[in-house]
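Hi V.,

You were right to ask for the full record rather than a summary. Here it is.
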Amino acid sequence: MSFRPRRRHTAAMGESTNGRGPNTAELAAALAGDESAFTRLAERHRRELHVHCYRMLASFNDAEDLVQETLLRAWRRRETFQGRSSLRAWLYGIATNACLDFLAEHPHRALVRDGNAEPPPAPESPPAVPWLQPYPDRLLDEPAAPAAAAPEATVAARETIGIAFLVAMQCLPAKQRAALILSDVLDWSAKEIAALLELSVASVNSALQRARATLEKQKPDLRPESKPDLDPDEQQRVLLERYVAATERGDAPALAALLREDVRFSMPPEPATYVGRDAVVDSWVQGGFGAAWFGDFRCRLTRANGVPAVACYVRKPGTSKFRAMALDVLQIEDGVIKEITTFPLGSIVRAFDLPPEL
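Predicted structure:
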C-alpha cells in the first residue's frame, strides 16, 4: 500500500485547516512582536508538529528537541510569514527544514544519503534503526491528522505512525522522506514541496516516485493490527492478560505459546533481530529471563504507535522497588504475536505517563 494524496485541503490566509486558526488581530499582534500572542498561536500546533518531526526522525526525544527548535526559529523569523499560506503550513515548513538540518548534522542518523539515484535493495529483514523510539498513543490520537481531513486521510495518518512504516522511511534519503510525508500525509502539492525544499517540481515528482518505489520494495505491513480505540476485543484482551501473567511469572514456555512460529524480535538500539519462536525465546532465557538472579517482573498495559504495548518493571534481588526497564510493543495478528519491538523504558517513561518505579 502506498500513500498518495486523496484530497486537497486548503485554508484561508492565516488560518489552519484544523479549525484553530488565529484571528486577524491575534496574528497581527504576534507578527508585530507580541511574544505572548505568538507563543499562544504556535503552541496550538506543538503536538502535531511533534508527530511530524517524529515521522521524519523516528525518535520521540529528537522530535521533542526539533519542535522546540522549530518554535524558536519561527519566532526569530516571524517577519518571513507573508500570509500566502496558513500559519500551520508555515510552521510545518520550518519544522521540515529543522529536521533536514538535524539529519545533515548527524549523518549517522541516516541509513542512506541524499543524492542516491536508485532506491536501496530490499533487505531480507527490516534494517536496524538504533535511534528508533516508540510514540505514546495518548499523545497520538488528537494530532494524527488535521480535523478537516477526509476519513481515508485519517486512516493513512494513523498507518504512517506505525513502527514498520517508520523503519521503512529510514531507508529513504532525507529529502525524499520529507517530500513523501509532505505529499502523502499532509497533502502538499509538488509545487509547494518544491518551493520549500528548493527543488524543481520535476525533481520533487522524481523524488516521490523513487520514495514510493523504495517503500514498495521494503513492503512494510501498514495494516492496523488492532482497533484504533483503546478497548481491544476479547481475544486480544485475553492474549495481553496471558502475556502479562507469563512475564510476571518469568514463564518462558507460556510466553512461547503466545508467539507465532515466525515471530520477529528486535531491541533498538541493539542491531540484532531474532526470527522464529525458538530463537526469540532462547534470546530471552540467555539474557536472564526467568532466572532468580535477574529479578521479578511487574507489568503495566499501555499503547504505542497504534498497537498494544507492555511496560515491564524489574525488581532486583535485595531491593524493594520495581524499576522501569523495557517497553514491549506488540504486533498482533490472528490472535498471536507476530512481532515484538522492545525499547528501553527509562528515557520515555514520562512520555507514556508511567511511573519510573512501582
